[in-house]
Fold this protein.
Amino acid sequence: MRSAASSRPYASIIGKHLKRFWSLPLLYTASMFLAVIMPVMLLDETESNKHYLAGITGQENPLAVFLIVCIAVSAGLMYEYLERKISANYMHSLPVTRTQLFFGTLAAQMIVSVIPVAVTAAALIAMGAGVSASLMWVLNSVVMIAATLAITVLACMISGNVLMTLFNICFLNGVVPMTLFLADASMNEWIEGYVRSDILEKILINSLPAVSLATGAGIIKIAAWALFAAVVIAVSLMIYKKRPIERSGDSLVFGWTKSALLTVVTFLGAAFAELLFLDLFGKDSIAGIVAALIAVLSIFIVMSILIYRTPKVLTKSGIVCAALTIALIAGYNFGFSHDVLGIETKAPGASEVEKVSVEAICHENGPRYDGSLFKGNKNGNIYLEDRQNVEAACDLQKVFAEYLKSGSLEGSDAYTQAGGAFDVSMKLKNGRSFDRSYSWERSNKAINDEAEKYLAVIYESSEYKEKFSFSKMKACDSMIVYGSGTLEADEEESVVSLDRKQQTGLLAAMDKDFQSRTYKQEIQTVKKGYDPYSIEMEFGGDNYQSVTLTVLPTDKYTLEWIKKNI
Amino acid sequence: MIKVSGVRKRFDGVTALDGLDINIEKGSIYGLVGTNGAGKTTIIKQIMGIQRPDEGEITIDGQPVYENTEVKAKLGYVSDELYFFPGNGMRETAKFLAGLYPGWDMDRFEKMVADFGLDPKKKITSFSKGMQKQAALIFALSAMPDCLILDEPIDGLDPVVRLKAWKYIIDDVAERQTTVLVSSHNLREMEGYCDHIGIISKGRMVIERDLEDLKSDVHKVQIAFKGGFVEADTYADLNVLHKETRGSVTLLIVRESREKIEEVLRAKDPAILDILPLSLEEIFIYELGGESDEISSII
């Protein structure tokens, strides 16, 4: 009886994997049931159910996302035959190409991964989650699986044994967010005026497929991650085709990757250790330097043992990697401490800038100028476009940049009465952004005078007064006036909550004062003996906000309104 | 026909195969012998398409093997290190292999399993080492291969099973013109079954010959002269691989035909002249004596 099956390599490979790993989908389906479905069964109220189900289909359930990641990583380990010489030799002696082995295994991994998601989706639909929302959740989850699986597959292709595969799964997933986080933390530590850009934040959030797809995934994001998965899979296949099977069982199958990984991991570890210990002990502390060196040495030894599989770390390759790491760390420290990229001293000219957003916390009512409190500005800044304002902001930023060439603003505390702060966000004509945040001590008269000069131009400009008018603020949910002489809310007799009509009247009076107020008045220290009124405004909705404003002695209209109406 | 031309393979700076050439005729049983580390298993892995040579070419019936499923489907392989899927019995593994080998013969598989007395449902990993070898041989032969590549297949098998295994192999060669490449350290057994021999050392082919020709080409000569006097150029016309004098008798290992040895040495009027054929084991030792320091020390 000759076998009729001759050209079924994919079916054979998939079948083999499914027979061997059948317990995985069962385990994860059961886990998804416990984590996702069972809570719905426990909830009695229809409304709660709906809210909960919407949370699941919106990928807001962290446990469900975690399980999806676990499914993909576990399924990825079906390439375990590559991690031992004996099984790798066997599989590659069979009449199948590497492409067939690769895709056959990948298909089995996807089947195993998708089963728990599909079963959960069917259950969600049965519980009333809505067909389209559930199908969207399936699509989102499948792409999440594909992208996570792709990274796992890549780790399997370059690794030679189980330990290094697990390490590389973590490394490949973590290298981008870790590097970005390190760059951000280092800039924050070394570069005065540095502000984390929105782009960096977006990249950080989107550097991991699971986090990215769990936070507001639209169809474009889903398509982008599907493309990412396809590209990583294609790269993995290319690597598989070049993989020397005789290196199976070794830590990494391509020799050059050993020194590269040892150097990169030690460098990242060194940079983190430096930040951590110098932050704990202080920049010039010998103890901090010693602690950082010990940490680096430990990381180097552990990684060297893992990669070269011998406790003999002082090999030729080990010494080369150590020298390379030392050079990288030296370059990294020198680069940041000497600001070789000129980030601190960079100052765009006004001609390059289209518009600016300025926030100067030099006074008690600073929080009122938060752009998100104004209509049409949910999260964004309010930009000023008049040339005089753009020029003033640029000139003031230039003052700080010039000052940093020769000195430092170190030691200031922006958020106390003793200090001042200037945050500027510029939209350049070339489409890029330029953000800086400076703080200084009030006692630093040179900066203080310059800041007051330029901020007065901006603050007193008609554009600023118009854009930050109380009439442009979002309608507040409540407005409370605290009586003169107290800021304590529990003293009921001095607290008056205003009705809608009173709110309108008070806001009109406050705006009159704001429109005529000078910058000097805004930053005036409340005179000794003056017991100020304060007004608390609460903004509800999804993002609750509360702002407390101090009524200044020069706020003639506001004071009159309070005396007359309360 | 299996043809290996100028194959080189290096691992971590060590040359495992150094321009190796092998020619195996269709329907022959080719014994590949060599010292430990000579490169036997390495060349077998290249022939099986498991590893890719750094240089050189390997073809079977004129077609390259690497990534060629059509050629690989015609190969049966028993590795020196056996691997079986954890938890699988022989029948389950056979079903998997049947999907990959177009020539798979399930009847033959069942017949061989019964003949070797193995339990097809029992986990193969729970078999003894010898039983696992039998299982691997059954899988290789059930694929009805045109070429059978055996890397130390009979080590660990008892004499009865060895005979049975060889019977299946010989029958395949006789009935289906199967080409067999077998690597083993059991040279006596190789001598009994192989018709061609390739001796490799340090990744290179030392001798590749028809076994009968090889045996008729290398002889052990015991010679003694009256008075024990031997002229310096007595053996100059012969290709002497090894020379050893014990008292008045000189032992020579000579790579020449019996006729030539007789012609050259009779002319010197020896008192004693015995010319004996060498066993494969002796040929192996004497041929590699000049190639390998380890062998020199054994001699």
In short: The mean pLDDT of chain A is 86. Residues 191 and 344 of chain A are 6 Å apart (CA to CA). The radius of gyration of chain A is 31 Å.
